[in-house]
Structures are given as C-alpha cells and as structure tokens.
Specification:
With 158 residues, this protein is an alpha/beta fold. The chain has a single domain, classed as 2-Layer Sandwich (Beta Polymerase, domain 2). It contains four helices and seven strands.
Length: 158
Amino acid sequence: MSAHFLQDLPCLFAAAQDPLRTGLTFSVLLPPDQVCQSARLCRDKGYHLEDVTVSEVQEGTLVLYHYDHFDRPGRICCMAVSLDNTIDSIAGIFSGADWHERECFDFFGTVFNGHGNLLPLLLPPDVQTPPLKKPEQGKISLTTLFPWAQAPATPEEA
C-alpha cells in the first residue's frame, strides 16, 4: 500500500482502493475520537467534503465521510463506528457538514456532539422514530461490508 497522509492517525484499518471498482483511492476506519482530526487533515491537504452518511451495522452506527480534491484525483472515505449512535460534529471544520449531519440526525437519530444547529432538516419535529433505523436482524457486520478490511492472520492462525 502506498503511503497516505491519513495513515498517521490511529486507525483500525487503512487500505488503498481501486478507483475503477470503488470510486475511491483510499479508505480508513478510525476510532470515533479521530473523526475531527481526520477532517482537519483532509481540509489542510486541500480536500473538500462531499457528504456525510450513516449506515447501521452489527457493531453500531457506521458514519462515513467522503472527501475529494478539486485539483487532482483522490477521493477518500473516512469511517468511524459509534457504539451509542453519537459522534463529534465536523461542522466547525467543514461548514457544509451542517446539512449532512442534520439529515443523518433526521433519518437515523445519529447525534453529532457539538453541532450548533442539530434540528430536524427534512422531517417534522414530532417524528418519534427515525424512519431509516434498521431492526437488529437487518444489520450486517463490517467484515461482510468490507471483507478486504479484515485483519491479517497472525502466525498462530496461519
């Protein structure tokens, strides 16, 4: 794998991607406390935020951040799994995250800590259950979504 500026962060896995297959050049799964740091690094390297989205997995709430660069190819995905459906907001780093985080709050109930305007964006304020919440049996594991991200076998397992 070629060196990438996000590899210096504490991460659970990092992988170069095939852009023709995935549309990405690099993916990284971060601990939730590294989301803001990864956003700052992306901003400092000239990347812009494309979107923030959520997917529910067996391990918790998978929050995905897609970044791209205007001047050169290099679309990347930073991901983090929240066990309690809360994660720090990056709206103070990328103002465009405001809308995306509010949408995730509307549809999944994900709370973005530090978000200054976490109000319903598209749904009526009296909606009790986020409409895109999955039942437990409908969730799949991260290793099913990202089989390439499984940790390599240790010598004892080989």
